[in-house]
Write a structure and sequence with these properties.
Layout lengths: L5 E4 L8 H15 L7 H19 L5 H16 L6 H11 L10 H8 L4 E6 L3 H11 L1 H4 L2 E4 H4 L6 H11 L7 E5 L2 H11 L2 E5 L14 E3 L5 H4 L1
Parallel strand pairs: 1-2, 1-4, 2-3, 4-5, 5-6
């Protein structure tokens, strides 16, 4: 007998390779806006800044609009680009992010294989503009039973309120039969912990969990989720 009736899927870094989309989007915009070459070193620096700002969002220290523009203000300042370009760059970046689709571990085939056997939903802190385009271009929009984005929900993962809104919309379900799958300990797994559901940490790099997030299952390859179910 299966153990779960519902799977909540994270998108960036779980179903889709966010770093590849991030690199492609930033490089193409640097070229389009004639900002010069965007080197690997610059991309690495941006990724670090970006993670720092999203962590602030998860901790409730900044709002979504503040982190979206703020990360580019700091990045541009460190690489010698006029930071006043940040709002324009971020707006274009949100649209461009969905142009590059790289699946993690045959995730599309995995999700497709589970259609009709469990209910599957997207739960993401990504922006509506970026995630809507990604889900359409990847085909996940038609494979999922629903999509829950923090901008529309009104709360960010890992807030308990985010998950309460999700459960209100998907209808009655036993919490012990809900599984969240995600790569972020601070967002997905801690959020699952707060919500009282089972957690599956997608950890392809073999990182160490040094947080208070409770990991019920850990997988290096998404296809291992089948054994969990």
């Amino acid at each position: 007998m299966k153990h779960f009736d519902v799977i909540l899927w994270d998108v960036d870094g779980t179903l889709l390779n966010f770093l590849e989309a991030e690199k492609a989007a930033i490089r193409s915009l640097f070229s389009e806006l004639k900002l010069g070459e965007c080197t690997d070193e610059m991309l690495g620096r941006y990724s670090e800044i970006n993670r720092k700002y999203w962590n602030r969002l998860e901790r409730g220290e900044m709002t979504k609009p503040e982190i979206l523009v703020g990360r580019f203000v700091e990045f541009f300042t460190t690489v010698g680009i006029d930071p006043s370009l940040s709002p324009e760059f971020n707006a274009a970046y949100q649209v461009r992010l969905g142009d590059t689709i790289v699946f993690c571990d045959h995730s599309k085939e995995l999700v497709a294989s589970l259609v009709g056997t469990v209910r599957q939903y997207v739960v993401s802190n990504g922006t509506v503009i970026a995630q809507t385009k990604k889900l359409q271009n990847s085909g996940f929009d038609v494979l999922m039973d629903g999509v829950f984005l923090s901008e529309e929900i009104g709360y960010e993962k890992p807030a308990k309120e985010f998950f309460e809104r999700v459960f209100e919309r998907i209808g009655p379900v036993k919490r012990e039969r809900v599984l969240i799958v995600g790569d972020s300990l601070s967002s997905d797994i801690l959020g699952g912990t707060y919500a009282g559901i089972k957690t599956c940490w997608y950890n392809p790099s073999g990182s160490v969990n040094d947080t208070k997030a409770r990991v019920d299952f850990e997988v290096r390859d998404l296809r291992e989720v089948l054994a969990v179910l």
